[in-house]
Amino acid sequence: MTEIDHLIDFIPYRLDWTQENARGQIFYKSGHHIGNIPVNEDGSIDTESDAYQVVKYLVENVYVPNVKLVTWGDIKKGDFIPLENFGLDYQASSYLKQIPNFYTFGASMKRVNTATEEVIGGNEHERDDIGSSFYHGSKGHWLLHDIQKNGLNQPITIVLQRSDRRDKVVYSPHIHPGSVRQGVFGMTDNEDMTCIVWDAYNAFDWIEPLSIDDWLKCFTTPQFDNMRPTQLHVSYNYTSIEVQCSGEWNNGKSEPDRQWREKVRDFSKKVSEKFNGKPLNIYLGYDSRHEDIADVQIQSIREACQRHVREENCRFEPEIKLLDVSKIPEYTREYANQSTEFTYSRFLIPYLENYEGFSIFIDNDFVWQKPFWEMFYFLHPDNAVACVQYEYELEKMSTTKMGGEKNVMYPKKLWSSFMVFNNAHEDCKKLTPEVVNTASGQYLHQFEWTDKIDRIPDKYVFTEGMSDENKRYHAVHYTRGGPWIKDMDCSDISQLDLYRKYKNMLNK
Length: 508
Description:
- α9 links the parallel β11 and β12 (319-323).
- The strands form 6 sheets. The protein has a 6-stranded mixed beta sheet with strand order 12-11-13-18-15-19, with no helix packed on it.
- The termini are far apart.
- It contains 14 helices and 21 strands.
- The chain is an alpha/beta fold.
């Protein structure tokens, strides 16, 4: 009996995905290996192989799932998918907690002490939640920059799952493999990123299904120095009833798999060495004239960290410092023509940290709903600084700010309101007290001191008076001021409920 004959005998009917008991109808066990489909040197599929025939039968006669190539932009069009779930908050928290002293072993269960090279963590028979989350956090940091540089070679795989909630149908994604990649999708918000979607319900009704050959071809793309897979490993995923596909090299030994794990390890080690045992800290802008806003922001940061990761062993909570110029004797710049007391002193942060480790600067008028953890990822360890690169049209910005003061327009407006410094970078070492005390605002705020600058998407920050009120953000930036400015009329300032929420917590 051939493999197909056996399959037909075992599954003599078409599977109805839309039924509640669909998972119980077939292969409800921990996966089922179909076989390996040979890949020719030109990237074409061996359509005569037994494994190919089995896959063709399953997709055309059993699953009938509408396999589609969908972009991240297509997913965003469907408000039925909860996009707020896409991200790497949890992994990023564990990563920031561990990375000053450890780098990933290259496998999910182990860490290596950067100073001593001691291997810490479990083995293949022991689960180590810290080591696992740290590994996936490290992978996310490397992957974000690898995709930005080299593109995405293979799409992630999504199975749409349906649930009825009152009067609304909700489709949510089950993702595997590709859970870290989907987090990177959510972080970068790159609408051209691609996904394989098993769309049993035809939720993406404007997209035509792929043929079997076109679907399989998505997984034959060369990786790492043009290494094309010699065969495709095909299996069932019992958890979501899909046919999974991945490339295999050298008779099942996945050489690119080993390569990218080594790349994650090497990247993680580089970042850890630059931390040099010094945890990431945050400097908040401080202005003695602004009542309580710094305290409110501190409260919001701590609440957000605790709310989103409850396990203390995986939760990163930063040391927070106030950038108070009265306590920095090296800062001697006259206050004239400055909108705040920290207008220029923010650029002293690398100096204040002895040009070591990493630090974040945040304007005092931010209030946080979600942690900042993911935002650190956008800084590559070879670069000097990452900042939120706002893309607003200057002519559309308000002409006033903070209690009626004139809002001066210039290129890269607001870019310096949130910055991640690689303090030890050679360009950051240019920011000496002498330079910060004397250099022009253009030199400092328009980043003329470096061309090694990474972009943090402005999707993370709601800029009051400019941003879309209907989107979800990590933080609100009250650029036009608020109740913390004496005698200010705040009647047209939006999103103040968030400020009041944390203000009330402080008053209890």
